[in-house]
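Internal tracking record. Fields below are filled automatically when a chain is submitted to the structure queue. Please do not edit lines marked as system-generated. If the sequence contains nonstandard residues, flag them in the REMARKS field before resubmitting.
Queue: standard
Priority: normal
Entity type: single polypeptide chain
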Amino acid sequence: MPVPDLPDHESDDAKDAARTEHSGAEQPETDAERRRRRAQFLRELAEARALRARVQPRRAKTARLRHAMRMRTFRW
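SYSTEM-GENERATED OUTPUT FOLLOWS
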């Protein structure tokens, strides 16, 4: 059975999953691995937010204005 082509970010996830399965649960995750996974998550989150802003421009504009108002009224 042929393996479907995966986008780059999914193939990285598949590699991580395979590495986790074969490495065993006894070995703790290193800081570098945790930072790499966190960076990947934050990239995907930013991509999802950008997509939502493009799909719902009115809601994104309202959120931007609301955030700007909060920043203007914030006091130290």
